[in-house]
Amino acid sequence: MTGSIIDIRNVTHKYKGSEQDTLDNVSLEIKEGETVLLCGASGSGKTSVIRLINGLIPHYYQGDITGEVYVDGKDISQTELYELAGVVGTVFQNPRSQFFSIDTDGEIVFGPENIGLDPKEITARKDGIIEQMDLKDLMGRSLFELSGGEKQRIACASVAALLPKIMLLDEPSSNLDWESIGTLRDIISEWKKQGKTIIISEHRLWYVKDLVDRVIYMEDGHIGCEWSGDEFRSLDDNDTRSLKLRPVNIQGRYEEIFDFSAKEKENHREEFTDGIVLKDFYFSYDKKPYLLFKKKYSEADGEELSLCIPELVLPKGKVISVIGCNGTGKTTFLRCICGLEKDCTGTIAIDGKEYRGRRRIGLSYLVMQDVNHQLFTDSVASEVLLSMKDKDDARCCEILDSLGLLKYKDTHPMALSGGQKQRVAIASAIAAGAEILLFDEPTSGLDYSHMEKVGELLHDLASSGKTVLVSTHDPELIECCCDYELYIKNGRVISFTGSLEKLEGIRRNAI
Description:
The chain has helices at 46-54, 56-59, 104-114, 119-132, 148-160, 178-193, 229-233, 237-242, 260-266, 330-338, 380-386, 393-402, 418-432, 448-463, 475-481, 500-510, and strands at residues 6-15, 23-30, 35-40, 63-71, 74-75, 88-91, 166-170, 197-201, 214-219, 222-228, 276-283, 307-314, 319-323, 347-350, 353-356, 364-367, 436-440, 467-471, 484-489, 492-498. It is of the alpha/beta class. The chain has a domain at 260-270 and 315-343 and 355-510: P-loop containing nucleotide triphosphate hydrolases (Rossmann fold, 3-Layer(aba) Sandwich), CATH 3.40.50.300.
């Protein structure tokens, strides 16, 4: 060993079911206490490097592998996963995949309890983590009721409670709002002060730029280049775009989009005489178990409602960003529109026709935040064809090609990276041809170039007459393609404004 806490030596890896190597002769040494950023395009191998370090490759993900991996002096190929629990902690891109409990308190203490710590020590760790990560508002809640961003915060806390030497974070900001990203940055900064070794796989670069000591750029399964922290911070937009990376420096560019306090003061709502009319969209997660019949909610139910939209007119043929903080009702709004929340009894009116209940389902198609819930077949092409009313192989290939997925058409969807899975779900939505297309964080795992491609596709869908609603925390996507901003807070529409004039101003200031 060289004294490095992580030593990857000439590793080549290919997942079972894939014909292409995901890692190609990768060698990497990381010293104890270093904070290292892994960046690169979707599918470049970042997540596979994370899986090498935490032992999921080769102990969980089957495939062909050559080379050696040592972590804290342990040969990963000869070390059981449970032996790494106190050494390596991982926060996955999809936090649900690492939950073991059903409530937030139980999830944070699960790790310490599982390794047999004294109850007093468990309580002390829990209290310390809650204070350090500002989680009081999330305690005593069901994990199933949390937003994606809230789940991510709990996942960070549950890993930190084990006090591992090495912290691995795979796209940790992908589902977070801007305030929560600031909290995450503070958490990483605190871990850095504690001397932990931190490896972050990330597309959003701006919030970690002042924390990283070294940056590894992954390209097609190998290390393309490497920068020191100072060299990385000096990269301009032309440098990052040429590498399919998002900007490193964004000061002053996007604050206006997420200045929710200003939107609440303005409280402006565009009025449309023609469009898609949503009426009586009321819904509550707090159901009364003793009621024999479903309660029909109305605006009078006030605070009891998780969603309260008496009437809203959406313009046809436009891309509308749905913005707001984590847990404020954006996903609930989308789920109610497409009929996934059966207790929501709202009505959708289009061209004089009203659609209620199950009839709403055929009008819309939702790409979920966790796309694993809607991938069903054994190949990418079959997944897209499944959404088509009339199977069309040529159209399927055209859609896949537009999203950079054509070469994966025969690959099993679960063998793809998170960003690639997201694009498969988007391809299925395009193939479905519904009137209302709903996207929940569609660019959360995508690099800059693929985010632009998604933005172009959303714009094209709107130009063809579709109404597109996009729940997003991604300012670059809003700048790229959105015509209107719909700001939701606590399940209520606070403002609904056009984006074109404001975003044109942003573009001018950025030039």
